[in-house]
Design a protein that fits this description.
Blueprint: H1 12-24, H2 36-49, E1 59-62, E2 68-71, H3 73-90, E3 98-102, H4 107-119, E4 122-126, H5 132-142, E5 146-150, H6 154-158, E6 169-173, E7 182-183, H7 184-187
Parallel strand pairs: 3-4, 3-5, 5-6, 6-7
Antiparallel strand pairs: 1-2
Helix pairs in contact: 2-3, 3-4
EC number: 6.2.1.2
Catalytic activity: a medium-chain fatty acid + ATP + CoA = a medium-chain fatty acyl-CoA + AMP + diphosphate
Protein name: medium-chain acyl-CoA ligase
């Protein structure tokens, strides 16, 4: 069943199904390359700018303390472009490189997801319950060139750095700084 989103009278589900069916029936071409960030997020941003789509939040996060982060499609697109630049420039990542993200579900987690899609970087998500041994295994098996974590989990990452020969950069999401780590918020 279809449902409306934030009072939008257009049924988004039926539009998506209709588009999919038209591709299946050969009425529309399957794109050679698909990138969610540019093919969906950027298109929806343009539809909002043109007044052809009502303004709805693209991202709305609320934590258990009631703090909110709300981004429009334009804001999410812009922030994901900046994040993709941080990953490619400050962290030295290229299309096809791997990044391990061990974060709780904070807004930066979703921002990294969209930025990695945009830049063609392979995101390897990890739960914040990983032990140092788990982190080392993931770094070695994935040959990740970058790891992103927070202040709480950084010591576990640091304890296994000697065994992760492919890792080139470490990015921390937090307020403080840490020796040898790039600070995500400062770079953004």
């Amino acid at each position: 069943p279809s449902r409306t989103f934030h009072g939008n009278n257009r049924l988004l589900t039926s539009q998506i199904v209709s588009h999919y069916e038209s591709i299946n029936q050969g009425e529309k071409d399957v794109p050679e390359y698909f990138n969610f960030a540019s093919d969906v997020l950027d298109k929806w941003t343009q539809l909002e700018k043109d007044g052809r789509k009502p303004a709805n939040p693209a991202f709305w996060w609320v934590n258990d303390k009631g703090e909110e982060v709300k981004w429009s499609f334009e804001e999410l697109g812009s922030l994901s472009k900046k994040t993709a630049n941080v990953l490619s420039e400050a962290c030295g990542l290229q299309r096809g490189d791997r990044i391990v993200a061990i974060l709780p579900r904070v807004p930066e987690w979703w921002l990294l997801n969209v930025a990695c899609m945009r830049a063609g970087i392979v995101l390897i998500p990890g739960t914040s319950q990983l032990t140092a041994k788990d982190i080392l295994y993931r770094l070695q098996a994935s040959k990740a060139k970058c790891i992103v974590t927070n202040d709480t989990l950084a010591p576990a990452v640091e304890s296994v750095l000697s065994g992760s020969q492919f890792l080139k950069s470490k990015l921390i999401v937090g307020l403080g700084s840490r020796d040898g780590w790039l600070n995500f918020k400062e770079l953004l």
